Amino acid sequence: MGSLHIWKGSINAERCIQVLEQHILPSRRRLFQGRPCIFQHDNARPHTASITTSWLRRRRIRVLKWPACSPDLSPTENIWHIIKRKMRQRRPKTVEQLEACIRQEWDNIAIPKLEQLVSSVPRRLQTVIKRRGDATQCTRILLLRSHDVVIDAVCGLALSCWKM
Fold first, then answer.
1. Which tens digits make up the pLDDT trace of 5-45?
2. Which strands make up the sheet holding 149-154, listed edge to edge?
3. I want to staple 40 with a disulfide (CB 3.0 to 4.6 A). Which of 88, 141, 153, 160 is the partner?
4. pTM of the entire structure?
5. What is the CATH code for 13-163?
């Protein structure tokens, strides 16, 4: 799993590119070691800004097209749900404690859980097609191999890299 990068403050396209350069690409290189993968992010404005898409294109980074407003399709949203549930149990008192707890829980997410979430994407897509684009009631399903997925997050903006 990729490392967690907490960005304090708002994020715009320039900061998004900075995070991609400094954190996401090094994680991608380390975890995929030159193997092809597809980059996935949500449709937040910093991700879809022309400067960001041009930057990705210049680096020949393949991007998975992702429908807007579709958290039910994203495995990363499930990870945030797991972490939020853990935070309610742990009840950190300060911002520093919250950050430390989030990092611990991020690091504690088991590879089989990631595999389960990633392998559920085709089923989620099929469900959306059957529902003609309506939201799904997706939760969790399982399978895949540990080296096949990298999930990085930047201040709640989901950025994922998937093996092709």
1. 787 778 899 999 998 898 888 888 888 888 888 888 888 89
2. 37-41, 157-163, 149-154
3. 160
4. 0.68
5. 3.30.420.10
